[in-house]
Amino acid sequence: MASTKHLAYIDYSFGNISIRIKQNQSSFLTGTTIWDASHVLSDYLNNIFRKKSNSISKPPLQGKYCLELGSGCGLTGILVTLLGANTIFTDRQDTLFILEDNVGSNIPNFSKTQKEFKNIDTTKELEGDNTTFAGQALVKELDWEQPVSKDIYDPETPDHIEYDYVLAADCVFNIEMLDPFINTLVHVCGPHTQAFVAMERRDADVINSFLTRVEERGFTWNRIPKSKLLKVDGVAGVVEVYKLRVKKTRK
């Protein structure tokens, strides 16, 4: 990431999908530049979702709902949206400016409200070129240290969404933020949700503590083999990706 932080824009290609990400080089906020974990997670998801698809014409994630936590510049969420998913991007208020810029410049389908987002027709044929199978996009504020907004997750409301996938890249790096992050995962992951969490191995104690705590909070986890992950600028093995599922016995 250090080699690209000075760039105003970074271009990414995932098969037939091209994404241009804007960075804010002058900001000291963690969510305004691209981190390696986001690139590695995006590449991995692009590969597995395309392989799972049994249709040439139908987008791999059409009709699926994704929630991205700590979206930052939005690379991973943008990718899955361009693969057909209907995606809610979330982050703190102070980083939404860069997130909204990137989502708006890469995805044509914006929803203004949760109700509009929920009620779109996900079965119709989608058209376009680079945005070939773009799903719907919604950008929302979400601070893990605050209660999760009811318009992001509330089973009691008619507009409630059960997420198929929850995505998070480089959200595990600070021991003090582990519990707020895990609390959010517990809140938004349903019995059928698959969560993919990518992180750089900066501090083994932080990662080990995260894995211990998510187990205690009712998740199972599997580490994705390094052989299946993109090698970025010689940092292979530094980025780790974990797949989390809610235990069937979790109350």
TrEMBL record:
It comes from the Eukaryota. SUPFAM superfamilies: S-adenosyl-L-methionine-dependent methyltransferases. Pfam families: Methyltransf_16. GO terms for cellular component: cytosol; protein-containing complex. Gene3D superfamilies: Vaccinia Virus protein VP39. This is S-adenosyl-L-methionine-dependent methyltransferase.
